[in-house]
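worker-03 picked up job from queue 'complexes'. Input manifest follows; two sequence lines, order preserved.
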Amino acid sequence: MRFPAAISFAAALTAWCATFAWTPLTRESWRYLSSVLALAVVVAVVGALLRWRRAPWIVAALVQLVVGVGALGVAIAGSPVPGPALWEEMRRAGSDAATYLAPVPSGDGVGIHPILIVCGWGVVVLTDLLVGSGRRAPWAGLPILAALSAPVGLTDDAPAWWVFLGVAAGYLLLLFLAEQERLAGWGRTFAGPEEPARLSESVRVTTLGIASGAVALAVVAPLAIPTLDLEVFDVGRGTGSGEEIRLRNPMVDLRRDLSRGEDVPLLRIVTDDPQPHHLRISALTRFNGEEWSSGDRSVPRSNLPDGEMPPLAGVDSSIARTSYRYDVAVTDDFRSRWLPTQAPISGIEAPGDWRFDETTMDFIAGEDDLDTAGMRYVMTGVRFDAEDVRARLTDGSEDSDAGTPAPSAELTQLPPSLDPYVRQLAREVTGSASDDFERAAVLQRWFRSDGGFTYSDEAIDANLQIGTDQLVAFLRDDKEGRIGYCEQFAAAMAVMARSLDIPARVAVGFLAATRIGVNTWEYSAHDLHAWVELYFPGAGWVLFDPTPGGNRGRVPSRLVPSYTRTSTPIGSPSDPAAPSASPAPAPQRPTPAPSASPRPVPSTADSAGSGQDRDSGPAPALLAALLGSALLVVGALTPRGFRRRRRAARLHAGTDAAWEELADTCVDLGHPWPRERSPRETARTISTWLPDGSTPARAALGTLVAEVERARYANAHPADVRAVADAVTVISDELSDSATAGARRRAIWLPRSLLARRRADD
Amino acid sequence: MDGNGSIGGFDATAAPSADLETLTRVVGRIRTNVERVIEGKPDVVTAALVVLLAEGHLLIEDVPGVGKTMLSKSLARSIDCSVRRIQFTPDLLPSDVTGVSVFNQVTREFEFRPGGIFANVVVGDEINRASPKTQSALLECMEERQVTVDATTYHLDAPFMVIATQNPVEMEGTYSLPEAQRDRFMARVSIGYPVEAAEIAMLASHTDAEPLDELEAVTDAAEIRKLIDIVSTVHVSPAVQQYVVALVGATRRSPELMLGASPRASLHLLRAAKAKAAIDGRDFVLPDDIQQLVRPVLEHRLIVGVEATVSGRGAASVLDSLVATIPVPDVASHQSAPATSRHRA
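worker-03 finished. Artifact:
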């Protein structure tokens, strides 16, 4: 009766390990942990004694209950007799549990540890009864699982991985012990002394296989399912995912969301757009010297997103355009008072009181409690033909059939406090450009590549102010300057554009979606971005993105509208010889560059080095899933492949190697190969494993034994390698054919010889 | 022992050399001859042949009437050589065995009259009925194959083999054979009662005529000498030497044995194994040869301790358990053996 005691203690310890999952519920978790450990020992001792006396489970349950109540009294109230003190403690703990949020403070007169102690004891007793008296070790997983998962509902926190690992190991140990006991109870005493050892070895090997398989699955399966959040073995992300993304003041929230470590999926889009990008949430039109803000908006009740939108402001009808339909689903994590929409937009149907501002075409919640969480809506975005835009903007003609007049003066307004350095710099940079559009394009290129700017996530700071002083510092070409992130780039370019009398506004939204399905794309928190829209008569509001691309940057050039690129050199006042008015668009004509082909995931070259995992979405999860599956497959194939290679190598490596190979084949098939016996004795044993009719195999065995004997004991005998290999193959095949299907499978996938060999070598 | 050259159904014998073929043919003839008299006891016959070819001496121990003398006589008669039979009795004198110098009245010189030991095959019947003094007279002859009488040494012709029979020690009127003398016998075998069929056949053939009288010699001393030379060419690998030493050493260390086997026992064991291998048509010794010869070669040399005796274990069962536990040298030890082989070279 050795096992019952071991099982009782294993059960109690495993259950106690599971109660580690409750540590987030209370501040001083040692209070309940120590008590539950003491109770677990009591339960295990009592349980082992009961099993030893072979008490029926109902008696065992009653005894455990009586002993448990006494022990609980001591642990909680200090008296083995349950009295008013115990009752009072429990009542107080109950009211504390109702009063405080987890983690509940703990102390001598406060805390929920009495409840936890009682619950812990309950888990231990249930486990013990199931495993010990009930002899249903697998069922013990239920109370243990309950203990593990209870805090998830209360705190949203999954138990730490080491708790899971400890409990899993304990549970597997329980299963192993129980299985061993069950098999030992089958009365194999008639067998020789080797029999039980072999039995437990096979059990051990099988258990090891199941255990490693189960643990590997537990680790890998969540990775393989992209929609599930990986919580148990969460590496490299922030803690928990409970926080929502709230967007009220777009700029401030943008900073906050970008600076958080965690990348949460926010929008899912089904569209025919080959690469959705620059999904705008809001346009900021006012710069007051301190910050960019949305300015005053007039949003009449009639401006509802219920179909066709007003014609695009300032866009010449000669420009060819393509429409894409976007079917948007917002996750619950994204709560925005602004509705993310493509710009320009030609139609939208969204539920709720969303109202658009005709000048900016962004959508604002009309009711106080309205936000985007969980919303679904459909919109049609417009993308212009690049060559038409380019042609329209560079032909210099002012006449336009676009209905809307030039935008209001506010869009070129700059605070008087602005340092003249900014204006001067803008003129210097765009000095060689012939018209406004060229100037804007040169400006963009200056920010993106020529100006020596560096993109850096480290610049993101939720408390960052982007006022005039900060802008000047950002633009200065010194050690501290010219390093920043998208918002600084956008604000700086907008200010500089305005200083050149180009109407400018800052757009806040999402940069580029990540493909997660054929036509399905996802924007996540790290995709949040800021860019610039400049107004040109005839082309309307044109998107510019000054944030650098390249290896160290963020915005790959394929996401920048091609017509905004230019070859006009960066000018300077001292360089009047700069190429004249001809903007020479041809060489820069954005023929669909190789990088412009739609790709499911933005190239790593574009996003590498930016520190954060911005374009993440499902890509890392997919990668991890692939990696996990690959690991699983490799793990499953390794023993088999190793064994096969070893077999191939040994079959033709001489008589002794071939003999070893036959030994391993027998071990793989579950036959106890007699070690350190003479070849003939061994062959006699092998022949008992061969079916009666297999004459060829017996003949082969005779040949093989003769060769082995000659190789080992005769004087200089040349080995007949081929005959030996053939003989081993014949015998192995016959042995394999006569083995059970299970033994064959084990021999292929979990060759025991790999383990046994190591033991023999030790 | 398995008498037909294959062990457990695995006839691993392949293309023996011409010498070995001769050997197996001659041995087969002797075997057939002997088995005409001793029916259904191939193991005992093989043991006798092994001892003959290994130049040892054979001790046949069994209760009276099972054919001890028959075996020794039939073996002796199968070989065309000199055969002497000495019936050991309590009053037998050492000089009866070795010979005596007698004064010749005519030549007026002492002349040596050879005793019973001067023959190729000496059958010593009921050896343990003689006095210890006479028994020890056999010692020098058996070990050194020579007789010294009156300071003159007479060499014995090869082949020289003593086949002694004895009744179990418990029988009346017997002296226990001294350890020193037991050790000089290469092997001891018991014949045992015949199986039913063999006994019926014996009744049929032995009642009318004495088959022993009809036996013809199938070989001669010269051929046996040649066979003995062939046996000496059988190869013994270092692994097998190691195995012999391990087994014999184990008898010395075993707590169940008061007296283990001597180095002479190792030598006998290996020589017997060579003969056995040659009889099986093999030119190298297998651990299996050793295993099969352990009991006949070692058993009579051991003295079992009190504890084993009390628990009913004889030397045979102790040996069996040793054979079952001592590892047979396999590849690894074989490869680590070059030290030994260098030593031999």
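worker-03 released lock.
Residues 187-199, 226-246, 572-617, 758-762 of chain A have pLDDT under 50 and may be disordered.
Chain A touches chain B at residues 656, 659-660, 675-681, 683-684, 687, 698, 701-702, 705-706, 709-710, 712-715 (CB under 8 Å).
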